[in-house]
Design goal:
The protein is an alpha/beta fold. The protein has helices spanning 20-29, 50-59, 91-109, 130-136, 191-195, 227-237, and strands at residues 7-13, 37-43, 67-72, 115-119, 123-125, 141-147, 160-161, 166-167, 177-179, 186-190, 242-252.
């Protein structure tokens, strides 16, 4: 008799109150057996009522997973009002904080689960059987194509191949594709890889790796990759490959 694997959904949150209705509704729609699912959320540095809303929703049983973990950790990083979060000069510091948040959440929430599903709070729609579809490809690290409208360009530009020249929207129709880097909007990772040391580097990692891109304005003179992209390079160093499903789309909020 084959036992279905257990899975931990992990989400770092910061000022995400406006997305919480859709976030919890998406989790509730999942067709994967809920008794095999756990949830971990890290909230930090919010400027809205995200922390209070999370505490209330979890206390009221908005989710029927086997376990839910809520932790708080602020890093003191704020983006100036009116400045887009993708502004070039902010990227190294912003991505470093996000990497630290992901690692802190991972270390606090991971127990004996078989898989970890990283899910951003502003992913607003995905197939109810997304977990089953990702598990079915039987790869240690795999992600779908995150877009803001069906059939559009990839929103998650951290998932790439050809040294950053191709993203998942460029690879439609090719089935399962090998990636050199991954994003974190929705990412399935075998939990044992995390236990073996796979983390999100809060610094530029892999300077000697043949998969690292050439210097880029967003990274200044730094050599290597950071956060989810750094995780992908580290996974390769550990002997694991990253994969993507260009035709399996999930929707990210446009705002």
């Amino acid at each position: 008799m084959t036992t279905s694997p257990t899975l931990l959904v992990l989400t770092p949150m910061k000022s995400t109150s406006r997305y919480l209705d859709r976030y919890f509704a998406g989790l509730a729609r999942l067709t994967y057996p809920h008794h095999l699912l756990s949830l971990g959320i890290l909230e930090g540095d919010s400027t809205d009522d995200t922390a209070a809303q999370l505490k209330l929703r979890l206390a009221q049983g908005f989710i029927d997973f086997s376990k839910a973990t809520l932790c708080h950790r602020s890093f003191g990083f704020t983006i100036p009002p009116g400045v887009p979060r993708w502004t070039a000069g902010l990227q190294p510091a912003r991505r470093a904080v996000l990497a630290r948040a992901r690692n802190h959440l991972l270390f606090n929430a991971l127990r004996n689960q078989d898989w970890v599903l990283w899910l951003d709070a502003d992913v607003v729609d995905y197939p109810a059987d997304i977990i089953e579809q990702l598990l079915a490809v039987r790869r240690d690290i795999v992600q779908p194509n995150c877009v803001t409208e069906p059939g559009g360009d990839s929103f998650d530009r951290n998932a790439w191949t050809a040294r950053g020249r191709q993203h998942l929207s460029d690879l439609r129709g090719q089935g399962l594709v090998r990636l050199e880097s991954v994003g974190g909007t929705l990412l399935l990772v075998k939990a044992d890889l995390h236990r073996d040391g796979l983390v999100f580097p809060p610094f530029f990692y892999g300077g000697r790796s043949p998969w690292v891109r050439d210097p880029h304005p967003l990274r200044g003179a730094a050599v290597g990759e950071i956060e989810t992209e750094g995780l992908a390079i580290m996974a390769k160093d550990m002997g694991a490959e990253c994969w993507g499903l260009p035709d399996l789309e999930i929707l990210h909020a446009k705002d």
